[in-house]
Amino acid sequence: MLLTITTTAEPATDLGFLLHKHPDRVQRFPQSFGTAHVFYPEADQDRCTAALMLEIDPIALVRTRRRDTPDFSLGQYVNDRPYAASSLLASAMANVFRTALRGRCDARPELAASAIPLEVALPALPCRGGPGLAEELFAPLGWRVEATPVPLDPGFPEWGDSRYVSLTLRGTLRLAAALNQVYVLLPVLDQAKHYWMSPQEVDKLIRAGEGWLADHPARTTIVRRYLANRRGLVRSALGRLAEAEDAPEDALDRGPIDEEPPAAGAADETAGADVADGVVEADGELPAAPPVPLAERRIAAVLEVLRQEGATSVIDLGCGSGKLLKRMLADPFFTRVAGTDVSHRALTMARRALQAVRTNARWTVFPGALTYADDRFHGYDAAVLMEVIEHIDPPRLPAVERVVFGDARPRVVVVTTPNVEYNVRYAGLASDAMRHPDHRFEWTRAEFRAWTEKVARTHGYTVRHLPVGEDDPEVGPPTQMGVFTR
Length: 486
Ligand code: SAH
Description:
Layout: E1 2-7, H1 15-19, E2 27-31, E3 34-43, E4 48-56, H2 58-64, H3 73-77, H4 87-96, H5 98-101, H6 109-113, E5 115-126, H7 131-138, E6 144-151, E7 161-174, H8 175-190, H9 199-208, H10 219-226, H11 231-246, H12 266-276, H13 294-308, E8 313-317, H14 323-329, E9 336-341, H15 344-355, E10 362-367, E11 382-386, H16 397-408, E12 412-418, H17 445-459, E13 462-468, E14 479-485
Parallel strand pairs: 8-9, 8-11, 9-10, 11-12
Antiparallel strand pairs: 1-4, 1-5, 2-3, 3-4, 5-7, 6-7, 12-14, 13-14
Helix pairs in contact: 4-8, 8-10, 9-11, 10-11
The structure holds S-adenosyl-L-homocysteine.
S-adenosyl-L-homocysteine is lined by residues 247-249, 283, 318-320, 323, 341-343, 346, 369-371, 386-388, 391-392.
């Protein structure tokens, strides 16, 4: 069984760096069920193809099976496994291209983070559901899909088609995204997973599906088929995906992308009515009447701290529609900027906003979830979580702490969050209401301080606290900020 990956991004031979496999070599990787070979049928500057060929040993395959395997007798030895791309190929991909699947490439980090022209071919792919299913699964991800049914026997056209298709995908995607999509969708198309389902399969699916599965129109089919219709697992996976989708700043729907801060005083006129109706503005912003809107003050405060700390490369975690990113790109102090968010809608907006900025800074925006360690979060001077933690369910907050402070470990981390004590200053906000419908909590100054100090202690940082907005003598500032350094 064979998978080929071709790129025409020049120099095309950089594919070798992305896959961590040298184009001049033929390499073998023993698998429990046979041997995987990686080689390059072509490796030129303008076009380079890597092939993963899996040689199956049917006897070894039988030995790795459990007794309750659904195959029986002769079928265990005589089957299509040696020839047809299947979940075995997906397992081999996971072993052989582990680092590439994570999107990691220290030698060519920008290339790993960019969409490049790709062609992925699987000449013999079992496709239960016909060529239409391949189209339904791959087209929404941005691929042009060519799925040609393979006839049962070309000598007897009247016998009709087999359940195999020859699949070619063409598109401009990040290599890691392409690999993860193929990795998940191979077994989905084949629907004959060779190993037994365990709850870890849900984790694998969520991890590999990050950034594309939650929004996929056929996600229910994908999850069901991937998890072999095991009801409990399917439910848990769909639940986790729905959470990823719901998290977004739903306020994004309410405002234009490039909304400039309203002119001084403008917020006044609408403030009363909005709050009385229980409608809260974007970003958890309440239309109080500071001369400079709070969102703007927050951005200014964060930029100021980053500058003081000499942080010229910054990742904005939970970047939303990219307001902070945009400001950093426009400021020559910042040389490398990244943004990530779990919401696709937000990222589309961010990308659009950033493309309009003239800048010399290198920048990238990619989908990511802060609850999972991700190598792409590494390597920046500073990370910013501006108005993000209060969108995280408290039981998941420790995961975010580990990912940011334990794994990514930038020199500086800036966190902002509402100060709930200040809510009494918002006339019209019910006393038990939060500032934004998606907030999971809002903390007092003491609660925030206790959290920041615990996090700093646990992960070896020092933290200082700064007010953002007018520091009210009784209730403190509307926004509180923690600056962690190590
Ligand atoms: N930082 C931006 C957006 C704040 S709104 C600003 O200040 O304008 C909170 C953002 O966090 C949303 O865009 C939401 O999609 C994102 N978010 C929430 N939970 C997340 C998670 N687990 N991983 C990544 N992003 C998340």
